[in-house]
Design a protein that fits this description.
The complex is a heterodimer of chains A (about 230) and B (about 350). Chain A is globular and about 50 Å long. In chain A, helix 3 packs across helix 4, helix 3 packs parallel to helix 5 and helix 5 packs parallel to helix 6. Chain A starts with a strand and ends in a 5-residue tail after the last strand. Chain A contains six helices and ten strands. Chain A has a six-stranded mixed β-sheet. A four-stranded antiparallel β-sheet of chain A has the order 2-1-4-5, covered by helices on one side. By secondary structure, chain A is an alpha/beta fold. Chain A has a single domain, classed as P-loop containing nucleotide triphosphate hydrolases (Rossmann fold, 3-Layer(aba) Sandwich). The longest helix of chain B is centred in the first third of the chain and has 37 residues. Chain B starts with a helix and ends in an 11-residue tail after the last helix. Chain B is about 50% helix and about 20% strand. A six-stranded mixed barrel of chain B has the order 2-3-9-5-7-6. Chain B is elongated, with a radius of gyration of 29 Å. With about 350 residues, chain B is of the alpha+beta class. Classes of the chains: A alpha/beta (about 230), B alpha+beta (about 350). Chains A and B meet through helix 1, helix 2 and helix 3 of A and helix 1 and helix 9 of B. The site of magnesium ion (MG) has 2 residues of chain A, from helix 1. Chain A: This is Putative hemin import ATP-binding protein HrtA.
């Protein structure tokens, strides 16, 4: 049996206080194992992004337990969560969210800079990643000079840079046509298998689902295995 | 500083422009400071360079040396309670002189000192005052520019005494007029022994100064600095220039803080992404700080260079004085001000939340 990369146990998240309270996540339980690529689909406002933020240590849950690998992160402080994100989690955001004044290569090197790694090693790693994602010829270009697909691929390369245990992607293909989107997701899937890591992807695009090992449905803050329609 | 340098390189124009504004402001700060310093020296260098710590005046003088008169009794008491190395009395009178019987009058301040006392000036040209010789005077170098020469005979207006100019001194002005130093003996003779001295200079610590104030009735002992401030026009000149300098510093702080505040606002989403990727607030704050400081340091360096270049081009008669302590002081203050100006941006950077990054379409 493969190890768990991410474990959520009865995770709840409530926003606001007093009369304004909204329970966005209503008890989520999920296990993601090494080598697994999980897709999350569901209607707008059902809590997918919130679920991803909580899993990725961006938001702390109101109750419940979250484990990354073997480490319980539910009780950690903001500073420790920062370190967890830096070392164990890779994010791919809806719009690639690259830093506008960094070249493709520097986008990756930034992560090793944040982790105080040696430059030589990081450069080798960055070049390797860029090569696998077909970006080597673009490595000295700025984001504004890239196509949408190239930007998303850069974002994926960046997410892998620090060897995270798990990749969290929020609609990574939203701004791409379906063909380009499919290549990007395919690359994500390949990397997950190759490295025995895990990934969760939120998507609206039904055509991507066959690239994933498992599909979970989010509805009104709860995960269900089959859509209710 | 991985991020700071790359960003400044990418948005060159933006940072060059703000740098230019900083250069202009800091240039103005340095220039006005130099002017203030130059005017102070032009006004009152004789008191500034006086080799003394305190001045003893009569109590009714409103702290003004030129209004003060020490009575014989007071002087006796002062002489009694101090030794030769601690005090030297002096007379002061604002007057005009005429050269060699010419009609043209020149403003000047008469300073009567003990030629052997510690405030007697050294001539840089010609001779210094000597104890025995009467009716001799040494004058500030600026008199030379007005056509005076060693050996000239000067007629002092109020007493009609004719003095012989025997040398030139440096940095001796009072209330923007050149100082003519004469010996106390000459002073006595000029006034037929009726005029007493105005004040006494003290070279002593504050304890001694207080002691004399207590011991001698009707006198006040003020520091050299306070004596400077009470020279006619001194406080007013320095005050208005100081106000300009203070305002320039405030403007610099505002310009910098607004610039970095706006830039930080534009980068909220970006900082969110960086934090989501695991960058600490401290790291991002250091990035902003590094940008602020490097911008200020480079601007300062350029404006210091500019100021020194301009000061070389100024006419000699323009009162402008720029020295290393002044430039260093202004620079430190400027750096401090820019750090203060960037605090509001730092606060923003710390406040930004990592969740800014997720589920947003910008
Ligand atoms: N910080 C917050 N404060 C209050 N309510 C919030 C906050 N963040 C999200 N919500 C609410 O939680 C609900 C779920 O939001 P979430 O962004 O997770 O939806 P989503 O499933 O990602 O939607 P979409 O598919 O449109 O991106 C929404 O009703 C939203 O209004
Ligand atoms: Mg969303």
């Amino acid at each position: 049996m493969k190890e768990n990369k991410l474990t959520l146990q009865d995770v709840k998240k409530t926003f606001g206080d007093g009369d304004q309270q909204v329970e966005v996540l209503k008890g989520i339980t999920l296990e993601v194992k090494a080598g697994e690529f999980v897709a999350v689909v569901g209607p707008s406002g059902s809590g997918k992004s919130t679920f991803l933020s909580v899993s990725g240590a961006l938001l702390s849950p109101t109750s419940g337990r979250i484990m990354i690998g073997n480490q319980d992160i539910s009780t950690l402080h903001a500073k420790e969560l920062n370190q967890i994100r830096l070392k164990n989690i890779g994010f791919v955001f809806q719009s690639a969210n690259l830093i506008p004044y960094l070249t493709v290569r520097d986008q990756l090197l930034l992560l090793s800079e944040l982790e105080h790694q040696t430059h030589k090693e990081a450069e080798k790693k960055a070049d390797g990643l860029l090569e696998r994602l077909g970006l080597l010829h673009r490595k000295n270009h700025y984001p504004e000079q890239l196509s949408g697909g190239e930007r998303q691929r850069t974002a994926i390369a960046r997410a892998w840079m620090n060897d995270p245990e798990i990749i969290l992607a929020d609609e990574p293909t939203a701004s791409l046509d379906s063909e380009r989107g499919r290549t990007v997701v395919q690359m994500l899937a390949d990397e997950v298998k190759l490295r025995e890591k895990a990934a969760i992807m939120v998507t609206h695009d039904q055509r991507m689902l066959d690239l994933c090992n498992r599909v979970v449905y989010m509805e009104d803050g709860q995960l269900i295995s089959k859509p209710s329609v | 500083m991985f991020l700071a340098l790359r960003e400044m390189k990418h948005a060159k124009m933006r940072y060059v422009l703000i740098g230019l504004i900083m250069v202009l402001i800091s240039f103005l700060v340095l220039f006005v400071s130099g002017l203030a310093k130059g005017l102070a020296s032009d006004n009152a260098s004789s008191i500034q360079t006086m080799n003394a710590d305190y001045v003893v005046l009569d109590k009714q003088s409103d702290q003004r040396i030129n209004r003060s008169q020490l009575t014989d009794e007071q002087l006796k008491e002062i002489l009694h309670s101090t030794n030769q190395k601690q005090r030297t009395e002096f007379g002061l009178q604002m007057t005009t002189v005429q050269k060699n019987g010419e009609a043209k009058k020149t403003d000047s301040t008469l300073f009567a000192v003990d030629p052997k006392g510690f405030i007697a000036p050294q001539s840089i040209d010609g001779q210094s005052l000597k104890e025995g010789n009467k009716n001799e005077a040494v004058g500030d170098l600026s008199l030379k520019d007005e056509g005076f020469q060693i050996g000239d005979r000067l007629k002092e207006e109020t007493t009609g005494t004719v003095l012989t100019l025997i040398g030139f001194t440096e940095n001796q002005s009072f209330s923007h007029s050149p100082v003519l130093h004469v010996s106390l003996k000459t002073w006595e003779a000029m006034h037929d022994g009726k005029q007493s001295v105005n004040a006494a200079a003290l070279k002593a610590d504050s304890g001694k100064a207080k002691e004399i104030e207590k011991l001698v009735p009707g006198v006040e002992v003020i520091s050299k600095n306070d004596a400077l401030k009470s020279i006619p026009g001194y406080k007013e000149e320095q005050g208005s220039l100081l106000m300009m300098i203070v305002f320039l510093f405030v403007i610099a702080a505002f310009v910098l803080s607004v610039f970095f505040y706006v830039i930080t606002l534009q980068k909220v989403n970006q900082f969110g992404v960086l934090k989501a990727m695991g960058a600490q607030s401290g790291y991002l704050s250091r990035t902003v700080m590094y940008q602020v400081l490097s911008l200020t340091v480079v601007s300062l360096a350029i404006s210091i260079l500019l100021t020194f270049t301009v000061s070389q081009l100024l006419p000699a008669s323009m009162p402008f004085l720029l020295n290393v302590p002044l430039v260093a002081g202004c620079s430190v203050l400027f750096l401090t001000v820019s750090v203060i100006g960037s605090l509001i941006s730092l606060y923003q950077v710390i406040k930004i939340d990592a969740t800014e990054a997720i589920g947003r379409a910008s």
